[in-house]
Amino acid sequence: MDFAGGLRGQLTRGRFRANRATVVEALAKSRVLAMSEDKGPSRSDSQPPDLNREREELLRSFPRGGKLAEELVMELDRMRRRITELELDNARLRARLEEDDAIRRLVERIETLEVEKQELLRQNQLATEESEEFNERFAQVESEFANMANLFVASNQLHSSMSPRRVTRRIKEVLAQLVGAERYCMYLAAPGGEQLVPIASEGVGSHDLKPLHIDDSRIGEAYRTNAAEFDEKADPSQGSVEAPAVVIPLSIDEHVVGVIAVFSTLSQKTSFSTIDFELFKLLGQHAAAALVSASLYVQAEQKLPGLEAFLDLSV
Description:
The chain starts with a helix and ends in a 16-residue tail after the last helix. The protein is of the alpha+beta class. α2 packs antiparallel against α3 and α3 runs antiparallel to α5 (274-299). The radius of gyration is 64 Å and the shape is rod-shaped. It has helices at residues 2-39, 51-158, 164-179, 218-225, 274-299; strands at residues 181-189, 195-202, 212-213, 229-230, 246-252, 255-265. The protein has two domains: 2-35 and 48-103; 159-304, GAF domain (Beta-Lactamase, 2-Layer Sandwich). Strands 3-2-1-6-5-4 form a six-stranded antiparallel beta sheet, sandwiched between helices. The longest helix has 108 residues, at 51-158.
């Protein structure tokens, strides 16, 4: 704006100088004309000067300076408009540069966030894997704890009574509730060890319960070998009296005194699990001992042995 004002002032002064020069030029011409007239005939003989013509010539000289000033003012306005346009273009270019810079910073921020996202996803994947591993381990520990609880309950039930009848009932409860047996029978060896006599059963008709010779059946095979008999591939719910699902020998200090034959399990139990085999092992080691201890206690008329029976127990 200062430049434009200064230029306008200069143009105004130039216009004044142009008008002044025109006036001076007109006066000079008038003076020359007067001198030429003095050299000629006398004033009284010559014609008087034409003042109107001089005035017109003087007036005609003024528009040339005004036109020049007007052109300069128009050029000044054109230059001002051009300056305004250039300033607008400059502002647009600055805004575009700022916008491009903002976009560049935004893209850089997006790339940074993408890297952080990938890192968070990786950490989340690791956390998920660790959580799954922890859950799996927790499930295993929970299952082992449940198995130990079942074993503890079974052992406690077997030794909670000194009555043969109650011990037998506890064995049946373990088979039904913890193993899931539906049809089963417990055999004890007859004197001489040649036959197995059924003493307790569940879900089996009386006509199927008869003494078995140890050499004629799968049940006798388990008694003779002191090893459980079962088919890992067979469905235990489809077992029968002739083909029991599992036969468990009952022993005391490696001396076999009987067997438990599970003929079939409940329909929903189609296979034996690890805890089932642990229960079979527990029954094989504790059921016979609990039953024999209860029988001896009854035969002793429920009398505890005297102190002298325990004096020679030191090892």
